[in-house]
């Protein structure tokens, strides 16, 4: 049995009733759309419950309007809803308040915001940015390029055989030259849950800031940014039952206060003359132009939905499915799984079937209506280190079942026989 009521949760997701197959160039008009969808690509994007879609519909049918500047009724309603969404996010991740919550387009933009607004000003020759070998490109490429622009160097905390961070190596690397430690919280490839609080402590002792990429963590477990003592923490709405087009940057108020804006324009200024300008209060200083109003309101609804389930329960469900998938896939002896053991990982399993390219495998899985991801999952250097070009990743969420994992395993077994 499950720690959550999967059957009733599934009723909130109409897309899970879809059948797929055949020619999919025209959405919904496949030639033989006859197999029930098994959606196991949640680490890329989760599905959206009716409650979240309803919040979007209510906004557009009821009070669609620009925020902040209007004194008319609709604008006030939209402003209150948009501002409340910041409060709700703050509460959800343990931030002090809306002043610490900046809405961005996604995790990637949150990362770029800090890299440009903080990194370009604060980094220089002789400074080091410490990353991990399992960083997503969102963090790896961004810091790599900002380091190139500023003359800073980049070092990587190594990953051991089991896919865990080598904390002795971390201790060696994090010295007084380090200005930023940027680490993924839950790896989107290995499923490793990193000791981010410990890394934050090490960073702070060395006088560095810590940025935590929580794209895979916030959707799947309780996260408290103050407990971690992160200076910055980022995640995306579309991986936690929310819409695309919204991400969140948490930043400690005193740090955000000190930072210059990243984007300039309307909505982020207090006063402007032909000569100079001053900035709005936090968080609006970092939200230039018409912001992600609909998306923010919908993210609020997604958080309400997750909170109703309870994040401890979401985590328990994730762990249960990850362990089951790990064990079942391990039974197929020519499958190699990356990352820590089944009982100590986030809700995803990336693997390879011996002698079969991940793209071929996922294409066969697709014939079974099993949706997974094949590729390097935006961790190309990590795949290079693992000695493979790509892997197949199945990732689970609140609506997934043991039966769906059985279908995945059957499909992998089918591929195995086909390519034998
Ligand atoms: N970091 C991690 C760990 C991720 O899994 C992802 C999404 N694959 C990202 C960052 C980037 O998220 P987004 O594409 O929403 O910016």
TrEMBL record:
Family annotation (NCBIfam families): sufS (TIGR01979)
EC number: 2.8.1.7
GO molecular function, one term: cysteine desulfurase activity
Gene3D superfamilies in the cross-refs: Aspartate Aminotransferase, domain 1, Type I PLP-dependent aspartate aminotransferase-like (Major domain)
Reactions this protein catalyses: (sulfur carrier)-H + L-cysteine = (sulfur carrier)-SH + L-alanine
Protein's recorded name: cysteine desulfurase
InterPro entries according to UniProt: Aminotrans_V_dom, Cys_dSase_SufS, PyrdxlP-dep_Trfase, PyrdxlP-dep_Trfase_major, PyrdxlP-dep_Trfase_small
CDD domains membership: SufS_like
Enzyme kind, highest EC tier: transferase
Record domain Aminotransferase class V: where: 38-408
Pfam families xrefs: Aminotran_5
Organism of origin: Halogeometricum luteum
Cofactor: pyridoxal 5'-phosphate
Keywords: Lyase, Pyridoxal phosphate, Transferase
